[in-house]
Design goal:
The complex is a heterodimer. Chain A is an alpha+beta fold. Chain A is built from 18 helices and 15 strands. Chain B is globular and about 55 Å long. The chains are: A alpha+beta, B alpha/beta. The complex binds iron/sulfur cluster.
Amino acid sequence: MPLAAWFARSQPQAGAPGLRALGVGAEEWRSVMRDVQRASGRLLALWASRDAQSDTVHALVLAGSQGLHITLALREPQASYPGIEDLFPAAARLQRALRDLSGVDAVDPDRRPWLRHACWPQGYRPLIDAPVPPPATAVVDQYEFVRVGGEGVHEIAVGPVHAGTIEPGHFRFSVVGEKVLRLEERLGYTHKGIEQHFARLPILTGHRLAARICGDSTVAYSWAYVQALEAMAAVEVPRRSTWLRALCLELERLANHLGDLGALGNDAGFAFGLSQFSRLKELLLRATQAALGSRYLMDVIVPGGTHCDLADPGAAQLAQCVRMLAAATAQLRTIYDEHEGLRDRFAGAGTVTPDLAARLGLIGLAGRASGQRFDVRVDLPCGPYPDLAPVTCARLEGDVAARVAVRFDEVQESCRLIHEILANLPGGMHRAAMAVPPAGATGIGLIEGWRGPVMLALQAGEAGAIHRCHPHDPSWQNWPVIEHAIIGNIVPDFPLINKSFNLAYSGHDL
Amino acid sequence: MLKTLRQIASIGIVTEAPPAADDSLRVRAALQEKIRTVLGRALCIRHVDAGSCNGCELEIHALNNPIYNLEGLGVRFVASPRHADLLLVTGPVSRHMEAALLSVYAATPDPKLVVALGDCGCTGGVFGENYASRGPVANVIPVDVAVPGCPPAPIRILEGILAAVSPAAGTAAAHARREPQA
Ligand code: SF4
């Protein structure tokens, strides 16, 4: 049936604007998913929760300017549910992770664990069983990588510890000569029990853990957390605070894009780019610290508003810094554009066509570089974004050059947004009194971080506790796409292609 | 090319040399001196992310920007533990990284120094210990210096490295070698 019919059955969902909630039965699970897929919708997140003795599987899907929180209450504890990886390839790893953590199984073929390596016992379900201390010895397990046969094919294994300052993960290449036939990723190395730990925290302090799920996206995660929490507690936050939050979010985007543009130049052999952009980034971090008290804005967003207010001279210096950055980046862009060596390395490397991107569900910045125009700030805008009217920056080529170009465009757009915010910042308070949400209340936060949409689902427990908190990083969607983007490229181009996506490990591993 | 050269010329040298009263100068000058006297050559650092949120990594990257210019001080990040004098370890040690951290430690030639970075590396931070997290770095390998902060600012990281290479760093409160408990 048309998606509208499912929406007609749905209820309001507390949290980000544009979200609805819908409970379905086991026989409807696949049909609603198929209708979402037919309507060119996307699967964002998949997780499970347990109340009393019954398990519920949750999904968040996005279609156009609406989102649907779909729940499937399982008839028996730990019953299995129908798999959907044929409809949404991104579901494959999500289903495996869900089984590792909650013990609930999708009926799909890949039986391998995903987040669980051999380090905690099979059968221990971190989100259901009582907390236990880590087992006594470190174990290295044998993961079954898919083998590629044929003459002259050999394997290259990289990681988890890499040569540079990069997060840990493992990459298994099957190559002929230098050419990559297949890449298989293995992640989960930084899994540190975040979701279990949430359930031991008071709900009014959980934003501090949310801020540390993925350090480069601390603003996006903390905003997603408080957005869910404030809606559950029916607390209206002052307008000024949502504008300050948007300021933080754009500063975070700007800092990460500047860092990436430098690193991408460097990975293509242009060290000049790294020194120029890393200098600009440092100047921005210092101006941010002077204005808002923190280089990366960790813990600036708190339940009820923001931890600090913005005043001159910090605000004026920030405006001046951002003006300088916009001009300097425009200048550097012409240098990048005219540099033969960069053009040669960027163009055509790691291409993901719009068709493939749509099929695999590529999202966020990398998605926009492959023609997937979705941006939460535009499609499900919260806070000041409807007033700010951000422009979606997109490209169709889907190669490293396109991901570089989208970053350059977004730097200019974020600079514009920051000026708008600074010029029109509403007066009043920057923080409201918080209330504890009632037990059982649920909320979903959805924020466009610099990589893509960050989601956080929250459920209140008794007396101010957290019953369940599930964060979702857009890297879940995009990691599998890198396995496709590298095919046919040469191994030495992998660091550049990988960097052009710059996906999260910690945000993914939880 | 012309534009590139013009840009280089117009930005000039940005590496900071703040006035003598500035804390950062003292640390940096002292660091260079210490490295020369203690090691007689460049200090080689191997960074290991043992489960960090990636926040500490952002500040390690910042150390290499032209404003802090760590390389200019004779400190280099190396790709292999076999070339390293010092391991800079971030994160609470995740259960899944424990074996990798132990093997990097074993592969680093003696005498080796270990700096645990960030609140997580020092105490386990907000994550603590659980089924998947071993908590502080000192729970897994011996630690010479622990640098708190979330994330610690680049200057604090420099101070920690200085405390580690200085044999007479008894004054540094952080300098207390912590052995993992069995
Ligand atoms: S100390 Fe802070 S920044 Fe560093 S890894 Fe821990 S949470 Fe992240």
